[in-house]
Amino acid sequence: MDEYRIEDHPDLQGNGWARDAVRRAEREARVRRLKSLPRRPRRRFWGGLAIAVAALLLAWAVFETQSGSPAGQPSVDLDEPFAGTSAASWADGEAGVVAPDARQVGTHSADQVAAAYQRVREAVIAARLDRRVVRDHDLEPFFGLFAPDLRDSLRVLFDGRNDGEAALVVTRVDKGSRLAEVEPKVRGEMTAEAGPDGELVVRTDYTFAYAFVPADPDAVRGPLDVVALSRFQVRYAVRTGSPGVEGLWADASAGSLHSIACSAAKRGYLAPAFAEPSLPPGLDFDLGAPSSPADGCPD
Fold first, then answer.
1. Which of 92, 176, 258, 299 could join 183 via S-S bond, C-beta 3.0 to 4.6 A?
2. Which of 14, 91, 20 is nearest to 49 (CA)?
3. Taking the domains of the chain in order of start, what are their residue ranges?
């Protein structure tokens, strides 16, 4: 039987950067199988949406490790799951995605900067907090925020065959895990600058803490069993030009996950550590550290 190649998908024909992205994903998958390269996150760029790819899904850390309590006596309050973690003092949900005061940037007026901040804020919220996207995996609220050319290519990325790479674009909770009703905790910032081609660029750096409901509360060892974290640094650009190009673009993304279930992460989805309680504790989570995560998940 002839081998089926993803880049032969008809939706990828004539779309060079998306086809290149898939080829890179396949090449990195072969590299991981051969285990011939160092396990260190490396950045890959794919046209308008350059993303740090699969290597970071193999390396994770745990922040503010809480040692396990005796069996049947978890040290976590499921009504206040963030208590006992550094995320407890962070803002709730959308309140944590705050734009700074808009000022003129290069040739872009303060009003243009304010409008760009608003577009980017909507994109961050859709990608990481909107439960239609995060929990229900309905991606249209996210796709609709971007320029038409990027929107069409994103649909190719999310066709189910590139979930490891797509995980760096939006957060999707594993279907076997249940998010708690409390809002995720959020901490981070965004800043505007002039891009090399004169476009208006907004850089974001946000960390999100998600609380989950355990199937067996008595098996929970501590807060880090039910709280999973993700940190993403994304470069957005507002471009003008043809109808397909004009609008918001996401140009580059790097990220790391912490206190998670490794098997779900390798499939491109988020699940809490209690889903794999045999995993050893990792490193304390440090917001001041580089985004590249420490090695923690087995191959």
1. 92
2. 20
3. 6-275
> Where does the chain have alpha helices with state H?
16-34, 110-128, 131-134, 140-143, 148-157, 163-166, 223-226, 262-266
Strand order of the β-sheet with 91-92 is 43-44, 50-52, 247-258, 227-239, 200-211, 185-194, 91-92
Which is more confident, 11 or 233?
233
State the Rg of the chain over Cα: 19
> Which of 59, 115, 109 is closest to 298 using CA atoms?
59
Whole-model pTM above 0.85?
no
Q: Residue 154: left (phi > 0), alpha (psi -120 to 50), or beta?
A: alpha
Q: Which residue's structure tokens are 């901040």?
A: 117
> Alpha carbon of 24 to those of 18, 220, 251: distances in Å?
10, 39, 17
Contact 56/292 with Cβ under 8 angstroms?
A: yes
Q: Quick count: other Cβ atoms within 10 Å of Cβ 10?
A: 6
Query: Once rounded to an integer, what is the mean pLDDT over residues 206-222?
Result: 89
